[in-house]
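Dear Dr. L.,

I hope this message finds you well. Following up on our conversation about the binding site, I have prepared a predicted three-dimensional model of the protein together with NAP. For your records, I am including the exact sequence and ligand specification that went into the calculation, followed by the structure tokens. Please feel free to forward this to your student if that is useful.
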Amino acid sequence: MARPQRFQDAVVVVTGATSGIGASLARAFAAEGAQVVGTGRDQARLMDLAGRIALPLTLDLTRQRSVDAVAQTVLDRFGRVDVLVHNAGIGQFRTWSDTAVDDIQKVMDVNLYGAVRLTRALLPAMVERGDGVVCSIASVAGERGYPKHTAYCASKHALIGWSRALQKDLRGTGVDVVIVCPPAVDTPFFENAGFADYKAQHPGLALMHPDAVAAGTLDAVQRRAGQVILSPRARVLWLLDKLAPPVVERLQRWKDSR
Ligand SMILES: NC(=O)c1ccc[n+]([C@@H]2O[C@H](COP(=O)([O-])OP(=O)(O)OC[C@H]3O[C@@H](n4cnc5c(N)ncnc54)[C@H](OP(=O)(O)O)[C@@H]3O)[C@@H](O)[C@H]2O)c1
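The resulting structure of the complex is given below.
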């Protein structure tokens, strides 16, 4: 007998479904029976998604009108959202002195305010129904600082802080918030952020596969886990950083000096 699908008929909105982790998430949720709404700005990649998911939609998270239009289309078509995945995000990797306020605002506009805009547009319907999951794809860079990451770390720390506070606000409503922190993942993310030689500069680093991030995220959403750190190595570092921050600091300095 076929295994029952874990998200049968669930309406799942995945932002940034046109690339990397988002594309894997869209495929994984669809494979588990979900009606996936996948969003992005890249029209060619959205066309590729058509046929594989229920509804590809153009969305620029930095534009309120675009966010409102997508929310309206989703609610008109499906009448509800079961899972809202804030996955779209951009990186920026420069030292602090090359990072102006405008640069940080640009990253925050997608990574934090984009999630806030879409949540404000879709969450009321979820709360009214008394069920659902909001899932923030954050990063291990939302838990600690990394060199040349001021803008990105600021945005992911902010996304985690916002998500944690939202967890508290939503207590008792039936809607849960899940925070997912992947380590470095093998996607076009670093190239898109102008860091094309990221892999070459980190020869020993085993990048996680985006399908593994998707699998971990589906598990976390199904369990309604408060927060998950993906990959055993990242989990150990995360725990060590909580318990003995100087040890991780020394490890990082040693690594950076090699
Ligand atoms: N790759 C990693 O090492 C890594 C590690 C930890 C966490 N993450 C996080 O995982 C998420 C996905 O990253 P990825 O690695 O899959 O990166 P990616 O391949 O560069 O994909 C980013 C996605 O975000 C979308 N996006 C960017 N700007 C947008 C905007 N203004 N409005 C709407 N959508 C926008 C892009 O779609 P369009 O271009 O079509 O708009 C694309 O689908 C991000 O939040 C990232 O911070 C990544």
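In brief: The pocket of NAP is lined by residues 15-16, 18-22, 40-42, 45, 59-62, 87-90, 110, 114, 137, 139, 182, 184-185, 187-189, 192 (CB under 6 Å).

With kind regards,
A. P.
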